[in-house]
Amino acid sequence: MALKTRLEALDRSSGRRVEATAHQKGGDAFAPLATGRVHDFYAAAAADAVAVNAFGLGMALRTAAGRPIVWGLHEMMGQEAGQPHGPGLHEMGLSPRDLLLVRTRDVQTLLAVGEEALRSSAVGAVLLSAWGEAKAFSLTASRRLALAAETGGATLFLARAGALPCPSAAETRWSVASWASEPLEGGAPGRPSFSATLLRRRGGGATGAWIMEWDREQRTFRPHAPLSGGLVPLAAQRPAAASGAGGRRAA
After folding, report:
1. Is 153 helix (H, G, I), strand (E, B) or coil?
2. How many domains does the structure of the chain reveal?
3. In a domain, 4, yes or no
């Protein structure tokens, strides 16, 4: 009920609906993902849980086009990967007015939060972060989220760690890992860097692997500094079996 009240307040404050569009800015590492759809992000290993959440936040910022982001955080994810940190979110380019954070104790509630948020026309993007395997992540649940995204126009990014890829109605499926960043001038910490491997695209199409870094000023991803094109062969990234983290195959 509290979430519904907050979403209704966002609807009133937005004045009018802004169509969700993802603009490809100069230097962007790859073309925008389809909006009004579901995209699955899996941590390549349990140690990449922080990276998959940060990657999801970046994608949400990139897609939201200035509208609010709803971040649903599974309690177990917070325990395993750490709680959101104000200065860290600021370094990503997030301000308090950008984000509505909702914590949930179980996956069922997390999915309900996502479905409710996606149906709000005031929301630009939704990020759901979950830890571990759960029967609630069924194909039926995924289809409900996909329908809600199509109805409301917001884009859903589902970030999971400690879990294997499973069949879903997602438009794309990714394996995400952290990557060593390049120090800035004076030895200052570099920008957040990621390795992102596109495992599957709904309807078929090319896959690949990208090394990229987050540009907080432009709110977009750009090719990692040492690479000229940003796109690298999958074999140069890691053995293909590593992204699956197990023997189960997903549709």
Report:
1. coil
2. 1
3. no
> What's the farthest any 2 CA atoms get from each other in the chain?
52
Range of the domain at 41: 33-179+191-243
Confidence (pLDDT) at 58: 94
Q: For residue 5, is it within any domain? A: no
Residues 6+ apart with CB under 8 A from 45: 177, 245
pLDDT in tens, 61-101: 999 988 999 999 999 999 999 898 888 888 888 888 889 99
Locate 97 and state its tokens. 């007015």
Low-confidence spans in the chain with pLDDT less than 50: 15-27, 227-251
C-alpha 35/C-alpha 125 separation (Å) is 9
How many residues comprise the chain?
251
Q: Which residue has the tokens 């140690």?
A: 47
CATH (domain of 46): 3.40.50.300
Q: Cα(98)–Cα(224) distance, rounded to whole angstroms?
A: 26
